[in-house]
Amino acid sequence: MPTISQWRLRAAFAARLSHMYGQEVPAYTTLVDVSREVNEDVLRARGADAERLGSIGRVTAERHGAIRVGTPRELRQVTRVFAALGMHPVGFYDLREAAASAVPVISTAFRPVDGAELARNPFRVFTSMLTPADPRFFDAGLRSRLEAFLAGRELFPPELLTLADRAAAERALPDAEAERFLQLAVAAFELSAEPVDRAWYETLEKVSAVAADIGGVRSTHINHLTPRVLDIDELYRRMTDRGIQMIDTIQGPPAWQGPDVLLRQTSFRALAEPRAMRNPDGRVVSGTLRVRFGEVEARGIALTRQGRARYDELLGRIDEQAAQNPMEARGDIARAVWERHMPGSEEELAAGGLAFFTYRVTDDRPRDGSRPPTTLAELVRQGWVRAEPIVYEDFLPRSAAGIFQSNLSGDGTRDDGRQGAAYDADWLSGAIGRDVLDPFALYEEQQNRSLAQVARELDLPATLG
Q1: Which family would the database say this protein is a member of (predicted)?
Q2: What is the pLDDT of residues 30-89, one digit of tens each?
């Protein structure tokens, strides 16, 4: 019997989701079209160098989605759906602490973790869960009402979860079951036509627009779907030229002449979408909600823990200088700080242990009978080994919070005089019944595997210094 493998299920799900979201949010289709145009222009201008962090085929097909759920039970269920697609929870993100306004969620990202799987289709979903137990946002009465509301809804039908469990166990589904799974999975993330209880939604919206989007409706939906672009600054200009209102900034590292690291993101502003609203008197009227936006990203090199500490330190310097010089453009400040304190080449990043690379023995290595050097730096310098940057596959809490904040209609409310509810990666692992993987460990494992292969091929010590 013909079957559909997990990676093909993942690719088909991403494609169908993209088609569905383009119908719901037409400006997203414009974003995808402009991203493709920019990528084609960059490829023509830069040639092979444009594909240093992924083939143009991968970059063009690449998407990340974002969804929001309300409870650990819902998060466990969505974990099962993504497990069917070969996607694992990676990283813990606390957007409550990363945002100045009220964003009462914690998050993880579901994605493939194997290099070959990422190359086939790197689809990932940034998944946020509401935190009703945090008293900074929800008093006891509102928490009780919110938890009761969330307990009474069903986001994922039992048939979908049964098929998901089968796909996860067997790593494939027969054709007919695969088609049914894809239909149910995409439908679970469509925008519902069910009328929104206006009074309840507005009650939550006073706390946080994000809380209202999660807990003010009886379904979930794709909040944004993100293509990947090779020149995000050029994309920002072209979208603006087309009359599409973008948020004020590009989140993440600044544009500069050195290597791209981590992740840069921006979006067009959330659009007012027509929604049916039920008034307290029971009448259903036409209204609008402004919660969904179009995000785009440019991915760089994955940084080590040491490199990430450097990144966070530089963000702090930029904040401090921007506060001291309010008339100076933040982008100019950031670029100057980067050029002073961030290594300007991949070689310097590698030598400083600041970024992750894979290493491979070169075909044109010395063939004069000489023994290779025993240190990694010399192997690379003398041409025995080539370093290839590992692309950053994950997210930045501050950048994600910045995108959320830029698309909110108001700051909401939070009582910072109260102690926040404690959440961390261990809590999240227990809540979903699966280990939330450490992204640094995944990159390090990938790098170490390549070094072990180099050592075997060149008959060197297993640990290269």
Answers
A1: Belongs to the 2-oxoadipate dioxygenase/decarboxylase family.
A2: 899 999 999 999 999 998 888 888 888 888 888 899 999 999 999 999 999 999 999 999
Does 351 fall in a domain?
Answer: no
47: phi > 0 → left, psi -120 to 50 → alpha, else beta; which?
left
Cα 140 to chain centroid distance, Å, stands at 32
Asked, for residue 350, whether it belongs to a domain, the answer is no
Establish if 114 belongs to a structural domain: yes
Any bridge partners for residue 455, and if so which?
Answer: none
Of residues 62, 117, 107, the one with CA closest to residue 395: 107
Same domain membership, residue 367 and residue 223? no
pTM score above 0.70? yes
Contact (Cβ atoms closer than 8 angstroms) between residue 105 and residue 72? no
